[in-house]
Design goal:
With 291 residues, the protein is of the alpha/beta class. The protein has helices at residues 12-23, 29-34, 54-63, 94-127, 145-155, 172-178, 181-192, 205-214, 226-242; strands at 38-45, 49-50, 67-70, 77-78, 85-93, 133-135, 168-170, 198-202, 218-222, 248-252, 270-272, 285-289. The protein contains nine helices and twelve strands. The strands form three sheets. It has a six-stranded parallel beta sheet with strand order 6-11-10-9-8-7. A four-stranded antiparallel beta sheet has the order 3-5-1-12, covered by helices on one side. It has a two-stranded antiparallel sheet with strand order 2-4.
Length: 291
């Protein structure tokens, strides 16, 4: 079992049970036709990518009464040079293989697609000598966040905050609704306590310094152009050093795989990518019963 699988809560089994129930809410007519004779189905990978999502795939077929035997470890990059590569075999009653087929493939294809983009972004950071954090965001699919965040982990990226309870992030709407950055940070700190970090989305260096003075742990420089980011990040770090304050600087907003290298400069600690989950291409898998 992959070490990443140890991160998963036991509740993911219930989530998969719900997904299977969604796909078979009453009678399984196609399964009736196939019957219960034991069959072997081969999982093929037909496009390049990082394999991610094995624990979810395994759990789908555990619940349908099948077993899975894998040819590759989690996190391995698969390169189908001749059309397709055998990745695993699923053994069990024919109708029960097909009962889990689509749910399992959907999970594996998306999780692997996210892991693949995460791996490319982390590799790009390494190539540009960027030692900071490459992170995803909370822009995930409702009900599918655990799978998508897991894919980031396998690909080598940081998941960023998992949910609204994991870290305080005060964005423009919070500030506008509260009246000021200073007041928003103070009110957040009053309820979040010492153990939860506070991040503030900033539109300018002035905003960032107000957030830092108010006690923010992280400032997000949002939608800055690369040249603006470089100047602001280094200026903020210099001011913090003179005041003997420590703060992390995150760059975010419209940064893509194509533009990421332009943001990987000094002073930047974190670069977050909504594109790690939004619009990401899936890895192409198929499951075929031997005949």
């Amino acid at each position: 079992m992959s070490r990443h699988a140890s991160l998963l809560p036991i509740s993911y089994a219930r989530t998969i049970e719900d997904w299977l129930a969604e796909d078979i809410p009453s009678f399984d007519y196609g399964g009736y036709v196939v019957g219960d004779d034991v069959k072997v189905a081969t999982l093929y990978c037909k496009s390049p990518g990082v394999l991610a999502g094995k624990p979810f795939f395994n759990e789908v077929f555990r619940q349908t009464g099948c077993t899975v035997s894998w040819s590759f470890e989690e996190g391995v990059e698969i390169l189908p040079n001749e059309g397709k590569v055998v990745v695993a075999e699923v053994t069990g009653p024919g109708r029960r293989i097909l009962m889990g087929e689509r749910v399992a493939l959907n999970i594996l294809a998306r999780c692997s697609g996210i892991a693949s983009r995460a791996r490319r972004l982390r590799t790009l950071a390494d190539q540009n000598n960027f030692n900071g954090v490459v992170a995803g965001t909370r822009k995930t699919t409702p009900g599918f966040r655990l799978v998508e965040k897991y894919g980031m982990q396998v690909g080598g990226a940081d998941t960023h905050r998992m949910d609204l309870s994991s870290m305080v992030m005060l964005k423009d709407n919070h500030i506008w609704a509260t009246g000021s950055i200073t007041r928003a940070v103070a009110e957040a700190r009053a309820v979040a306590g010492f153990s939860i970090k506070i991040e503030v989305e900033c539109q300018s260096e002035t905003d960032a310094m107000e957030a830092i003075d108010a006690g923010a742990d992280i400032v997000m420089l949002d939608n800055f152009k690369p040249e603006q980011l470089a100047v602001a990040a280094q200026s903020i770090k210099a001011k913090c050093q003179s005041f003997q304050k420590q703060v992390l600087i995150e760059a975010s907003g419209g940064i893509t795989e194509d533009t990421a290298a332009q943001y990987m400069g000094p002073g930047v600690d974190i670069i977050s990518f909504g594109s790690m989950t939004q619009g990401v291409p899936h890895v192409d898998f198929s499951l075929k019963i031997a005949h």
